[in-house]
Amino acid sequence: xxxxxxSVEGAQHGPKGLRGFLEFAKKAGAAGCQPSNFxxxxxxxxxxxxxxxxxxxxxxxxxPDGVSAHCPIWVAGTAWTGxxxxxxxxxxxxxxxxxxxxxxxxxxxxxxLLDLCAELGVKVVPMFWGVLFGWELTTGYPWGFWKGPDxxxxxxGRERFVTKTQAIxxxxxxxxxxxxHEIHPGTAAMCADDFLKLVAICDxxxxxxxxxxxxxxxxGESWQDRFAKVAKHCVGCHVKNHVILDGFPLxxxxxxxxxxxxxxxxLRTGAVNMARFVELMVKVGYPQAYRKLMxxxxxxxxxxxxSAYCELDATSADGIAYVRDNLCIDVATTSFEDGMxxxxx
Length: 345
Fold this sequence. Notes:
The strands form four sheets. The protein has a six-stranded parallel sheet. It has one domain: TIM Barrel (Alpha-Beta Barrel), CATH 3.20.20. Helix 10 runs parallel beside helix 11. About 40% of the residues lie in helices and about 15% in strands. By secondary structure, the chain is an alpha/beta fold. The chain is globular and about 80 Å long.
């Protein structure tokens, strides 16, 4: 039984715009796509109409497999820190405002985006929560002085997460949308246990889900262990690969990807065995969870192939073809043992 189709994530293809991205995805052989929030904006900062977006998708013959909302939701959860790293994702005039005003802008923007997703019939929104526990805890450093006589950074982070994500979670829940957090370094949940703690402090809020990505498992927790732990929350899936170079520090102040220990790669040659990864997705129930939410016959394997060395479009197009031809497997519905000993005349 065929349960997957090939798709592609749009954030890395932002300069193409929506029309160019859809043309690229179709030409590369994708059956669906996940445009970024930026691709759905109008020049004045609003959003295209749902009808217009649906028509463009229909003209390209592509399924709407989600909307990449990583950037605005990360800003909403990180603005309070005053970090300059939010600036690439917000308008210049907004960047001049106070951190409180920036945060409110990001929340309001996200609420509008979720309304648009609902109009599009998109119930799975890949994203990641911002640095809501503070930069000290986000480093993960074990000797962090996170608690003292008059402070407890972990407890403060729990309270901050519940409070600052409330409006976004409430909106998503009211629309039947699942916010699919990409467990990722530098976010509010950097490993499986972190994510499960978020679910616990939010009283098992059904709007909290996981966007699976094996390429972010590079600091000790294997992708097999991570996604087995959060299996019932896995509603989204990015297909991405990486390598870890021996002899290089995993944590360093080096902006050049070619000089860093962890490097994203094409899908074919990275450290993750993609066939085994897809089998794990079947095992954790991702296809069923996605299809139930979206009402579709198949679930997307969303290509997010990047490389420190290979040109982006070539890497991405090759990844789409690889997923389409090798990973969209026909899932067994019976055991290979079932027919043994059977006799037919």
